[in-house]
Specification:
heterodimer; A: 500 residues; 22 helices; 2 strands; B: mainly alpha; flat
Chain lengths: 500, 171
């Protein structure tokens, strides 16, 4: 009950006009990011992160979190109206959402998607509130060995789930660890891999790297193809029929469970939750032949799963300090930039930040529901803006963002370098999520490992002294070993989707 | 397979590029191992600064060797036609890269506004083959308006221009 007391205090803060405005702005910007193809939530969050420098920590995280889950709904709009998924997690919505739009039922699809997203996001946030104290209490018992083992388990899941090529995912993981080592050694204070460059003594900036990999890199890939003209379906009514509403209830409930469960697993792709939900609804339906031709269940379930996933994925970040997706790694970077370290100590040391943020998740989900349906016309009209201008604006924003973070054109140059790297890696089907996640977790892993070995005078047996670390490490090994039969080439389309 | 689906059996270029990627990572891993040898692996109180890089570099060497073998013995995962963009695509990508490099070079030399103006104008013409007058107008908007928004409203200090009329109008 103490938890709910904190939550109420969080609401008291989150409902203040300034924080409400930030949540509103985040939902608006996030939806815009989701609507616009060519820029994913990772890049969008990273590009806008510099704009939060002037804000205090709670406000900055509220804004960025709203952008994060707002982007998920934005992708739905283009999926339904144009059959163009704004994000990888919106692909499934095209299967039945666009046929519904062609039948004049676009409003029903968008309304059900919005309601389902609200339900999924709200239940997942409730799950966060309920689970957080228990997870935090367990995590606070962890010593360096357990922390190391937990992060290794998280990374092993990320590598195995990042795509069909585990080898490529592991290489990206190693690359991320290398990038994380640039700068001063965390214990001895010795510069590593700085090549005599003063700028690198502080290490590589996460936001600059992510903006390059995901922002510049994504745009370069998009520029290879000429943008297709948008053909929009019309919207007659925003409300579903009674029958459609009745058919949506069970899929929304199932989608919530599926999205919530999968969102807790590090490395799980958001798009996977939508595919799992879609397959489940088709399997359970008495009339599966309707799927692909405008079945409302094919929109309700996946859209709910998607938003439940997005909110549930915040739980490992807030309670354990482990980001589970690239976008959440950027959010973690935002926390750290404002001097707050996500993890079990977050609830103890910064309750004035975390509880308003959690309360704002409820508020933001409600704002998305209320705002986005009336504003659909605006979103659609934005798609008529020439892609040339959109790309130029996005590039300018990333360039300004990189300069504002680093204060020099050197930082902008680093971002462009990683933009080229990101472009090359995408062309070669390397998944980028493991790179970002290990870049963030690498210094923490090294610190935990070295602290453990220092305690044991260099003996690795300390990693197996407690049941917790032993179980976690054995689980990590089993997960990695289970991927051995899958040492096969990766499908281009699946790997490219993983980079969203 | 994608290549056969599109009526091609090519993939030789893709395979070569994949192998080159594996070699690049192999070299990177070897470099990390070599550079890590300059740091202490173990100290009196535990692992030193060279400990982690040695293991990471070693894993990278092994993994990239595995990737090279995988790339050499497996079919290409997609056709060359899917890997190489058309002429217009290459033009857009290369021109963007050149523009980005020039932006970095010019930013602190001639200031944000003229740099952003030139950057926007050139890319608008190249991307969308937009009419010159419209491109000029949009470029002025992007450079001048964004400078005011970021510099004066959001507190993000952007380099001012020392050139001619720009300082006269406060940019």
């Amino acid at each position: 009950m103490e938890t709910f007391g904190f939550l109420m205090q969080g609401f008291a803060v989150a409902l203040q006009p300034n924080y409400l405005l930030l949540a509103l702005a985040g939902c608006f910007i996030g939806t815009l990011v989701g609507v616009l193809p060519g820029i994913g939530p990772s890049a969008g969050t990273a590009i806008l992160l510099p704009l939060t420098f002037q804000l205090e920590p709670a406000g900055a995280i509220i804004l960025l979190s709203a952008i994060y889950y707002g982007a998920q709904y934005g992708g739905t709009i283009t999926s339904v109206l144009l059959s163009v998924p704004g994000e990888a997690s919106s692909v499934v919505t095209c299967f039945d959402g666009y046929p519904m739009a062609q039948q004049g039922r676009a409003g029903s699809a968008l309304c059900v998607a919005a309601v389902g997203s609200f339900v999924g996001g709200t239940v997942a946030t409730f799950g966060l509130v309920v689970a957080a104290p228990t997870m935090v209490a367990i995590a606070l018992q962890f010593g360096p060995a357990e922390q190391f083992a937990l992060m290794v388990l998280g990374l092993s899941l990320i590598m195995v789930l990042a795509g069909k090529s585990v080898v490529k995912a592991l290489i990206m993981g190693m690359l991320g660890l290398i990038l994380g080592m640039v700068g001063m050694d965390p214990t001895a204070g010795v510069p590593r891999f700085t090549f005599g460059q003063m700028h690198l003594l502080g290490g590589l900036d996460l936001v600059v790297v992510v903006m390059g990999l995901f922002g510049i890199g994504e745009i370069l890939v998009s520029l290879e193809k000429k943008a297709a003209p948008a053909i929009s379906a019309s919207i007659r009514s925003l409300l579903p029929t009674r029958e459609e509403a009745r058919q949506s209830v069970a899929p929304i409930a199932r989608g919530t469970l599926i999205g919530f469960a999968l969102g807790l697993i590090p490395g799980m792709q958001p798009s996977l939750s939508t595919f799992v939900s879609y397959m489940a609804e088709r399997r359970l339906s008495r009339t599966p032949e309707r799927f692909g031709n405008g079945a409302i269940e094919g929109v309700a379930g996946p859209e709910t799963a998607n938003n439940a996933f997005v909110n549930a994925a915040l739980i490992p970040l807030f309670t354990l300090g482990i980001p589970t997706t690239a976008t959440i790694a950027v959010l973690q970077g935002a926390f750290m930039m404002h001097g707050v370290l996500p993890g079990p100590l977050l609830f103890r040391d910064h309750p004035d930040i975390i509880w308003p943020v959690i309360a704002s998740l409820y508020v933001g989900n409600a704002l998305l529901l209320v705002l986005n349906l009336p504003l659909i016309g605006i979103w659609v009209s934005l798609l008529r803006v020439p892609y040339a201008l959109l790309y130029v604006l996005i590039l300018i924003f990333t360039l300004i963002g990189a300069y504002s973070i680093t204060g020099s054109s050197y930082g902008v140059g680093v971002m462009i370098f990683f933009g080229v790297v990101g472009y090359a890696l995408r062309k070669l089907d390397f998944p980028l999520a493991p790179l970002v996640l290990t870049f963030v977790l690498g210094p923490l892993i090294e610190r935990a490992l070295r602290a453990s070995l220092q305690m044991s005078n260099g003996s690795p047996s300390i990693l197996f002294e407690s049941w917790t670390s032993t179980v976690l490490l054995v689980a990590a090994c089993l997960i990695l070993l289970s991927s051995v039969p899958r040492l096969s080439p990766v499908n281009l389309n699946e790997a490219r989707e993983d980079n969203e | 397979m994608a290549g056969e689906k599109h009526g091609t059996t090519s993939g030789g270029l893709v395979k070569t590029v994949q192998q080159a990627g594996a070699i690049a990572f192999f070299i990177l891993g070897g470099f990390i191992l070599w550079d890590a040898s300059h740091f202490r692996y173990l100290t009196a109180i535990g692992p030193g600064p060279g400990f982690f890089p040695v293991w990471v570099g070693g894993f990278l060497v092994v993994l990239s060797a595995g990737l090279f073998i995988q790339a050499s013995t497996s079919e290409a995962t997609f056709a060359d036609e899917e890997f190489v963009p058309d002429r217009d695509g290459i033009r857009r990508v290369l021109s963007t890269l050149v523009a980005l490099v020039l932006f970095v070079w010019a930013l602190e030399r001639i200031g944000y506004s003229p740099t952003a103006f030139a950057f926007s104008f050139v890319l608008l013409i190249i991307f969308g083959r937009t009419r010159i007058v419209i491109s000029l107008a949009l470029s002025v908007l992007v450079s001048v308006v964004l400078f005011y928004i970021f510099n004066h409203l959001l507190g993000v200090r952007l380099p001012s221009s020392p050139l001619g009329l720009w300082p006269a109008i406060g940019i």
